[in-house]
Amino acid sequence: MSAPAHGSPRPKPLTQDVRAAFERACLVEIEALKPGNVHEYAEGHGMTAGDFRASARVAAEAIAQPDISVGLRIAAAVAATDAAVGCNTNLGIVLLGAPLVHAALSCAPTPAAGEARLRARLRSVLAALTVRDADFAFAAIRLAAPAGLGHAARHDVSAPARATLLAAMRAAAPRDRIARQYASGYADVFAIGVPALRSGLARFQGTPKAEAWAATGCYLAFLSRIPDTHIARKHSQAAAEAIRLEAQESHESFTGCRDPERMTEALLAFDSGLKRRGLNPGTSADLTVASLLAVGLTDIVGRRTAGRKGGLAP
Question: What CATH number is attached to the domain comprising 129?
Answer without folding.
Answer: 1.10.4200.10
